[in-house]
């Protein structure tokens, strides 16, 4: 079924008064077997100001915290960052204004290509999904080439300024993560070719759902890039898998939620984890999130950093270009870590010499 034939979640929610959702949105019980763990610890918090302006001791401690959070959670909250709250609010507003446009205007950006410059759609990939998810989304490629919809008229200026500042935030965080691994501060930045890396806005709109226990905003999945920087309105819904249980994210005011993506897990040879997360819905209010996905250069073949490969930690992932990885993930229904699993090497084919490992795999 073409995505052009699917009504948006917002359109369905506003089209009539109903007490039950259409059958194509109903998830099976086994897909939602675990409720959030109310006794779980909070996601770690990183004080960004101590990373960039702290004393040597404060910076060292912050880098250690970054490493621990990346290894144990795959998620962390960033506070005291350099992006003004007024700019964050403007970014939220232009995204909301887009979703409030008439459907005919939004559907000008419905496309089939997963790496199209601007892509508006609903669910995740209706052409291959058995059920639809209670979510509308707007995806825009903003780096290395900047794109923007014509409407709302202030979207271009606000998003350009916001995403430029986010790239600087990502660069500083990636430097701290590099040092936490015992690498040079610029190692991961250079290894991923971040200067020409793909940056994408992913704005998500989850309207109120009359049966929130029967629907899902986004199913369990991992993110395909390096680092994703996310902010959301004051309506909870994001859940992170931690120690086998779902943990509800509770953001601090004026904070960003940052998560490790698949490409960073590959680069770190599995030491830092791209963790499964999902988005629940509510029947009370509209939930919105704006994520800035930051990845390697689109044609970069990402593989484990050689300095992190040794006899105790043989190379665990097959090299794959970022473009091919995205296309693979976007062409199938989301299913936990299934895309990452497709590039994970079985233990019998792991080797401490990456070039030998690749040579062997190319002939099997």
TrEMBL record:
<dbReference type="InterPro" id="IPR027443">
    <property type="entry name" value="IPNS-like_sf"/>
</dbReference>
<dbReference type="GO" id="GO:0005634">
    <property type="term" value="C:nucleus"/>
</dbReference>
<keyword id="KW-0560">Oxidoreductase</keyword>
<comment type="similarity">
    <text>Belongs to the iron/ascorbate-dependent oxidoreductase family.</text>
</comment>
<keyword id="KW-0408">Iron</keyword>
<keyword id="KW-0539">Nucleus</keyword>
<dbReference type="InterPro" id="IPR005123">
    <property type="entry name" value="Oxoglu/Fe-dep_dioxygenase_dom"/>
</dbReference>
<dbReference type="InterPro" id="IPR044861">
    <property type="entry name" value="IPNS-like_FE2OG_OXY"/>
</dbReference>
<dbReference type="InterPro" id="IPR026992">
    <property type="entry name" value="DIOX_N"/>
</dbReference>
<protein>
    <submittedName>
        <fullName>Isopenicillin N synthase</fullName>
    </submittedName>
</protein>
<comment type="function">
    <text>Involved in the regulation of shoot development and salicylic acid (SA) homeostasis.</text>
</comment>
<dbReference type="GO" id="GO:0016491">
    <property type="term" value="F:oxidoreductase activity"/>
</dbReference>
<keyword id="KW-0479">Metal-binding</keyword>
<keyword id="KW-0963">Cytoplasm</keyword>
<dbReference type="Pfam" id="PF03171">
    <property type="entry name" value="2OG-FeII_Oxy"/>
</dbReference>
<dbReference type="GO" id="GO:0046872">
    <property type="term" value="F:metal ion binding"/>
</dbReference>
<dbReference type="InterPro" id="IPR050295">
    <property type="entry name" value="Plant_2OG-oxidoreductases"/>
</dbReference>
<feature type="domain" description="Fe2OG dioxygenase">
    <location>
        <begin position="196"/>
        <end position="296"/>
    </location>
</feature>
<dbReference type="Pfam" id="PF14226">
    <property type="entry name" value="DIOX_N"/>
</dbReference>
<dbReference type="GO" id="GO:0005737">
    <property type="term" value="C:cytoplasm"/>
</dbReference>
């Amino acid at each position: 079924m073409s995505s052009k034939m699917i009504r948006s979640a917002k359109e369905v929610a506003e089209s009539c008064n109903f007490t039950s959702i259409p059958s194509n949105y109903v998830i099976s019980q086994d897909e939602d077997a675990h409720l959030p763990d109310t006794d779980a610890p909070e996601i770690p918090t990183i004080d960004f100001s101590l990373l960039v302006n702290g004393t040597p001791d404060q910076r060292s401690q912050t880098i250690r915290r970054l490493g621990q959070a990346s290894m144990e959670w795959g998620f962390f909250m960033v506070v005291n960052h350099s992006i003004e709250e007024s700019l964050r609010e403007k970014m939220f507003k232009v995204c909301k204004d887009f979703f409030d446009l008439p459907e005919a205007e939004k559907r000008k950006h419905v496309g089939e290509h997963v790496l199209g410059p601007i892509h508006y759609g609903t669910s995740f990939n209706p052409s291959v999904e058995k059920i639809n998810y209670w979510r509308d989304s707007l995806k825009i490629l903003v780096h290395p080439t900047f794109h923007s919809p014509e409407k709302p008229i202030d979207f271009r200026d606000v998003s350009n300024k916001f995403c430029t500042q986010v790239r600087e935030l990502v660069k500083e965080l990636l430097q701290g993560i590099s040092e936490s691994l015992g690498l040079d501060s610029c190692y991961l930045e250079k290894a991923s070719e971040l200067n020409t890396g793909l940056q994408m806005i992913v704005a998500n709109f989850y309207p109120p759902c009359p049966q929130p226990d029967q629907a899902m905003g986004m199913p369990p999945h991992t993110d395909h890039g390096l680092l994703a920087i996310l902010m959301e309105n004051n309506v909870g819904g994001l859940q992170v898998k931690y120690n086998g249980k779902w943990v509800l994210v509770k953001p601090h005011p004026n904070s960003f939620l940052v998560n490790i993506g698949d490409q960073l897990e590959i680069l770190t040879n599995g030491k830092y984890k791209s963790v499964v997360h999902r988005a629940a819905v509510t029947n009370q209010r509209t939930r919105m999130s704006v994520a800035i996905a930051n990845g390697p250069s689109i044609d970069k073949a990402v593989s484990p950093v050689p300095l992190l490969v040794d006899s105790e930690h043989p190379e665990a992932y097959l090299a794959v270009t970022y473009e091919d990885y995205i296309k693979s993930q976007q062409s199938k229904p989301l299913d936990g870590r299934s895309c990452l699993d497709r590039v994970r090497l079985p233990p019998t084919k792991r080797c401490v010499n990456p070039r030998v490992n690749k040579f062997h795999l190319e002939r099997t």
